[in-house]
Prior knowledge:
The protein contains five helices and no strands. Helix 1 runs antiparallel to helix 3 (83-110), helix 2 (37-63) crosses helix 5 and helix 3 (83-110) runs antiparallel to helix 4. The longest helix is centred in the last third of the chain and has 31 residues, at 114-144. It is an all-alpha fold. It has one domain: Ferritin (Up-down Bundle).
Amino acid sequence: MISEKMAKAINEQINKEIYSAYLYVGMAAYAGGLGLGGIANWFQLQAKEELGHAQKFMHYLSEQGSDLVLKAIAAPDQKFTSVAATFDKTLEHEKEVTASIRDLVTLAKKETDYATEIFLQWFVTEQIEEEVSVSDIIQKLAIGGKMGNSLLMLDKTLGLRK
Length: 162
């Protein structure tokens, strides 16, 4: 059984994970509207992954005998100036999620909640992968250019993600 404080923090994280999915669905729609189906695919799969993260947290709450407390999901900003800007926003957002996961780990340590601390290690590793993946895309955009053939090649590559 986890503490009420830890359950509340995990419920807040669930909200953040669902918000992440909502944000990425919007980015997918933006890319799709530009005719960049591969980039839209990447963001759609990212959204699906974020919902999976939320479900992991929900399952953990249930296993620990805590209640799921759903809250309203804020509408993300849907005004993007470029594909590069969507990935810059993605990296910024993932860094915020990383900080939030780190705060959960800190709380688990403070409460000597070893089970939750161990559970959260998967998310710590996942956030490293998330940031590296997006940083790699940003680097490719910087090297190849943010328009023209380079963007089309990136679109094709990201369309291969399954």
